Fold:
Amino acid sequence: MPRFQTTAVHAGREDFNRLCVHAPPIDLSTTYPIPDLGTGSASFDALIAGGHDAANPIYARLHNPTVARTEDAIAALEGTQACVAFASGMAALTAVLMARSQHGRHVLVVRPLYGTSDHLLGSGLCGVEAEFLTDAGQVAARLRPDTALVIIETPSNPTLDLVDIRATVAAAGRVPVLVDSTFATPVLQRPAELGATYVWHSATKFLGGHGDVIAGVVCCEETHAAPLRTMRAATGALLHPLAAYLLHRGLPTLALRVEAAQANAQVLAQRLAEHPAVSKVFYPGLPGARGGHLIGIQMSGPGSLMAFEVKGGHDAAARVMARAKVMTAAVSLGSTDSLIQHPAGLTHRMVPEEARAAAGITPGLLRLSVGIEHVEDLWDDLAQALEG
Structure:
């Protein structure tokens, strides 16, 4: 069995020798010639039913070879039978919610999590009744006969809490657990190996890794993938082949990028924890971090995301963002460059204020996605921004 780094380079390229290509080909066809009606009809039935492939792709909303190669590559990295790619992370979550709503309307959600996920779940737009919990330890007591899904995000956004996946799966019992593993990536964490039914990524982030593609993926076993493909075909939430190409192109350097950024983050977190302008640092690699005992058990490392609370509240945080020169003041994460943003005012602005406060998302909190720049340049930038 090849090691992770080798798999990241070669997965999804199994047909390259037959095609006589070295770089992933981009298939931009929207429709495909049908050699005979019998083959076309059988292919259509197979794809509408959620099949991974068929003798004929029929139409790009049903299947695209470039997208399929990327899906196969990511499934190999997560250790699942299948991966289903969508036009965005939110489209991927929507598909899971709609697919699971056939089994019940009740969904248990552990906060904190990405602000737009929180907003979508709380809005009822997908026809589910979301019950928000403040701790995964509450899952078993809140299960109902119509509970169809449990959702956790670990590490959580933006406070980097670690949630015990194996314990949550045990508490959920028969109910599938979806893990948003965007912050960890399969380099540091593989939830399916711990019993999670769905592994969800905003592939816009680390998997793409270069800030130039929006995509979402759900990794799972084939029995769960088929309904997601059916939902994707029916709703048109397909990933464009150009986006799939960029996503596939980013995978060979995934481990290198994650490990380099993580090494930088470990240095920065320690220095921030000692800075007089900072009241608190949220980072799984620091002593006392919530769920920090799971490093080395659930996660192989603490990752490259952190949050820190600036003394002086909102105005002080705004000044730090404005003074940053090397770091870019922008939402998103997981790119090669470092990004700094204000969760309460941006990514989590739609989360109810009381829920933000309960999760520790204060007016002075900043989230930092550490990139692969030289660590001393990043620290010099942080230091001067904090002194402003």
